[in-house]
Amino acid sequence: MSNVPGTGDQADTLRQMARTAKMNxxxxxxxSSGLADQQGIRVISVTSGKGGxxxxxxxxxxxxxxxxxxxxxxxxxxxxxxGNLDVLLGLSPLYNLNHVLNGEKGIIDILIEGPAGIKIIxxxxxxxxxxxxxxxxxxxxxxxxxxxxEQFDIxxxxxxxxxxxxxxxxxxxxQEIFVVVTPEPTSITDAYALIKLLxxxxxxxxxxxxxxxxxxxxxxxxxxxxxxxxxxxxxxxSLDYLGCVVKDEKVVEAVKRQKAVTELFPDSEAAQCxxxxxxRVIENKRQNQVKGNIQFFFRRMLDNxxxx
Length: 308
Description:
50% of the residues lie in helices and 17% in strands. By secondary structure, it is α/β, with parallel strands linked by helices. The chain has an 8-stranded mixed β-sheet, with helices on both faces. The chain is globular.
């Protein structure tokens, strides 16, 4: 930051004015061309009420399946302190979001490439640093993110499990929320608790449910019915069934070998499930147009972190 009093503030003001003008221009262009639904990156948060449901495995395999169907996918590992996307995929990142926040690296510099061409932002404990960012640093981060906007079709955020503030930072800022649940009663109960929190405290009303480790499709549908029934009685929300991933020993083998099942065993039953879900994600256009793109996602996170 500049040592000359007022210089940094003036530069930040000009930068903010330029950013606002650019965003307004993009919005007007999208509206006038009738292409609002096709503009910008699609931001999806994948979360769960508890750990042990295979959420990160779902995220990595879904990303690969989407990439295989022609989508340019960016992953952000937002499981602070316990992020394991790189471990699951046998990757060894040298840098993470912390290095961007402290000015050591640009956002492009920390991207790592995974299977099928997917790109990953290793977040590390980066979001915890947001509370100490000033306006200058926030605008710098948003400038960095400008570089990603045109490069990807979909960004998938792998959140922590549970209902911590870090989970809500990411989940509330995303356009779409996917909740991963398993047939275990505790998983269903905790998923409902998460959905209830997001609905009552943060006014989220649209959720998609993905059932992992199901015996078969009927087992998965029964899990969804249980969750939907209790949510329907007590919450004013829309709960949609996204699909299921069946329990498959090939998944266990892939995890042991630090590979995605979609990459290592593309013909396995679980891999076929991910292919089906990816197709459904592509076909189901995002419904919530109130929220914006990757810029909005990080801007909302930064606002939640305070220190404007």
